[in-house]
Amino acid sequence: MPSTNPTYNIASIPGDGIGPEVISAAITVLQKLASTLGTFAFRFDHLPWSSEQYKAHGRYIPDGGLEELRKYDAILFGSVGDPDVPDHISLTGLRLTVIRHLHHYANLRPTRLLRGCSSPLAALSANPSLLDWVIVRENSEGEYSGQGGRTHVGTPWEVATEVAIFTRHGVERIMRFAFETARERGRKKGKRGKLCVVTKSNAQIHGLVLWDEVAAVVSKDFPDVEWEKMLVDAMTVRMTLHPETLDTMVATNLHADILSDLAAALAGSIGIAPTSNLDPTRANPSMFEPIHGSAFEIVGKGVANPIGAIWTAAEMLRWLGEEEAADVLMKSMENVIEKGCRTVDLGGDARTEDVTSEICRDIESGL
Amino acid sequence: MPSTNPTYNIASIPGDGIGPEVISAAITVLQKLASTLGTFAFRFDHLPWSSEQYKAHGRYIPDGGLEELRKYDAILFGSVGDPDVPDHISLTGLRLTVIRHLHHYANLRPTRLLRGCSSPLAALSANPSLLDWVIVRENSEGEYSGQGGRTHVGTPWEVATEVAIFTRHGVERIMRFAFETARERGRKKGKRGKLCVVTKSNAQIHGLVLWDEVAAVVSKDFPDVEWEKMLVDAMTVRMTLHPETLDTMVATNLHADILSDLAAALAGSIGIAPTSNLDPTRANPSMFEPIHGSAFEIVGKGVANPIGAIWTAAEMLRWLGEEEAADVLMKSMENVIEKGCRTVDLGGDARTEDVTSEICRDIESGL
Lengths: 367, 367
Ligand SMILES: CC(C)[C@H](C(=O)O)[C@@H](O)C(=O)O
Ligand SMILES: CC(C)[C@H](C(=O)O)[C@@H](O)C(=O)O
Description:
The structure is a homodimer.
Chain A: E1 7-15, H1 19-37, E2 41-46, H2 51-57, H3 65-69, E3 74-79, H4 87-101, E4 106-112, H5 122-126, E5 132-138, E6 142-151, E7 159-167, H6 168-189, E8 193-199, H7 207-219, E9 225-231, H8 232-241, E10 248-251, H9 253-266, E11 274-278, E12 286-290, H10 307-319, H11 323-338, H12 352-365
Parallel strand pairs in A: 1-2, 1-3, 3-12, 5-10, 8-9, 8-10
Antiparallel strand pairs in A: 4-5, 4-11, 6-7, 11-12
Helix pairs in contact in A: 1-10, 1-12, 6-7, 8-9, 10-11, 11-12
Bound molecules: 3-isopropylmalic acid (IPM) (2 copies).
One 3-isopropylmalic acid binds next to loops of chain B.
Protein name (chains A, B): D-malate dehydrogenase (decarboxylating)
Domain Isopropylmalate dehydrogenase-like (chains A, B): 9-359
Keywords (chains A, B): Magnesium, Manganese, Metal-binding, NAD, Oxidoreductase
């Protein structure tokens, strides 16, 4: 009987700094998972798009590169950022260009307290399951539209503007995706979905009122999702004091940027959390990356924490529809952290390869 | 010898809901402090500007009211907000009108863990002194300028904008005030001042770059203040994980709105923190208010927590130059909380008047 197992074609963009080290760890673990489960396979193409390449050839992405990307099932991204290149150049030169070109209008940030990790919140030490969130970030417009400017520069009467753009199209598609995400999370738990729509419509009375209105319209198509609105300032309080009352949240580009950093800090996962840049229409491959940076100070020492990239790999599996494999991977990853095999940033003394091979061992032994 | 003790003329605007109950408590305590210390006196005029008045006469502020306000040394504000009046009407009808008219361009939010209060952060339970901050919020422009609008409303191609306006004048005056605040806090501790300038200039590249530039210019006049820049998203992480590394912070209207709510939550002071709306030039009287709302559900029951209004009164004393009296008041207030005389929101069963009279007793007994 010929096998009908899928083979996923992945573009890997390890990028700068510790990017290549952690992406290599993630790929090792993914291949182990594929060979152990035997129900799917991976093929990786490595694209050397990086600040090295920029410094040598004046650009991050070669001619035709963006079109090339379209043929993959997903993109696994390491990190971009180089001491010799201004941040805005490395950011727009590579990461933002891919995101814009492939219409990654949804950014997803799952946040929870992994077994073996600790939270700064006292309540969570006692009961880690109180925090299990996903933040949906609008990734294509809003406060990051780039519009605005400066007039009378340098004079005492200088005026600068930042113009946040919200289109009904843009708000509706992210809202719809957020409701779907909430519904899906509910379904898995055998409950109604739960969504909190974050705005600041009492002070930002044009674009954020549009958010409120669109939420009300879209919600009609999701009678199985309980939803509510909350102001972004009050949201920080609720996340801190009542984490158990939240599940899925959706917010603008800037608001969600702030809230997701706070979320990661509260879950003790700054440095190990993943983020997904998604085209929910699936017309284009989505891109998965750890939130940590290129961490040049530890490059080449073999001590980079691969957990961010491995959690990222689990998120990629989920998006590809391999839910079970993602669950296996998360379980093995948490087993290894819990038993104390941790890199220095998590208070241990394990090396990148120790953590990686322990996770591989755990995957094999669990099945 | 004729007395040269100052008498401070204060406009009290108790406002809505529990506003009158807590402002009355604050005034009782202030009068006790004045009579006990014997070095200054207070005279209060009560202005009945409230949603009641709005519902009866169609406006919050009577003809000539704003001009009247100018003759006072300070304004003590309770709360505004009424179940029968839309929030944006009560907010702009009273509070924002006063703030704009009297050029209260600086909003100050002191945050620390009071003795007897508890924080959700585990590290702070062990060592409350790790958190002692003041957040300076730009109170006159930025994301709250009200500019922007909506085009093609209700169509699939609708576009809404929120336009944040930053003037060099506006940024410079708040920056200068923030540096002065940091310097002053340093002076009291016998150290260099310490200021963190919060921006998001990697993504908001017009107005927030102006913030960065103005900070660099203004800092030259404050060689005795150590200062640094930080991105607003990373700031939430630092506040949560390393509170002891922060002292004075300055941020835009929206960024500081978010950060100050987070700060209050981390310090366990949501519901009891004060805020000051200041005209640092002192051309106009400044306005002092608790951050809590009108809390209609408990009106008239005698259980409202007066701590927010009393802490507010201490901030007013400081602004009037009565530093010692402010210190006495804070000490008595914390003594009373610490010994367990607390209203229900702080986990006790004391009534408003119990807390108030205990603080008065403590003031007397301490001197
Ligand atoms: C009510 C609201 C507009 C206000 C603000 O954002 O300024 C409030 O959150 C505050 O912080 O005083
Ligand atoms: C680097 C910066 C522009 C970026 C953002 O704000 O989007 C980062 O904070 C993030 O969250 O990925």
